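From the pipeline queue, job 12 of 40. The input is one protein chain; the requested action is below.

Action: predict structure.
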Amino acid sequence: MQHTQHVTISSGNRKLGAIMNVSLTPIECCPPGVPCADEGCYALKPYRMYPGTRKAWKTNARIARTNPEGFFSQIAERIANERPRYFRWHVAGDILNVEYLEQMCRIAADTPGTRFLVFTKAFNIVNAYENVRTLPRNLAVIFSGWPGMRIDNPHGHRIAWMQDETEHRMPRDTLRCPGSCMTCHLCFWLPTLGRDVVFLKH
């Protein structure tokens, strides 16, 4: 299948290990007013430091918005060909709209042997989708909790809490991130485990 624009799909990085992933532009492709935009978006560091990363993420965002069919068909084709065990949506960026989430779900449903993960602050988009449809079991949608941020979570998603010593809403059995995704993969299984996870601010 030929595409006029190329979607950059990473095979992994030093933090994630060999986990296939795709990203969009940080902040610009996130819900308006998210607190991390002013208080420590982790994705901004590589976005600012590496021109190749910046170009790839900006191109991905442009394709996702102007040619979503091409965007998702390229991702689906790569996953179908390589059948990765794990796939991460959005090291940078977030779910753009309900139609975008619908395509994420379609890819997951078509690839039951792959486990998918997305951290999101697009609570309203996920809730709107789940009000009428069910998420695939192999797609872990984890709500991102930032101190002081209201988390609208009527469907009971597991939460990834950012802890800067001011967050006191976490359940007592919340799991602590060991600091590297390379061998852990814990977050892909949080819905199955029925547990939240906490990330220490750094």
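Job complete. The chain has seven helices and seven strands.
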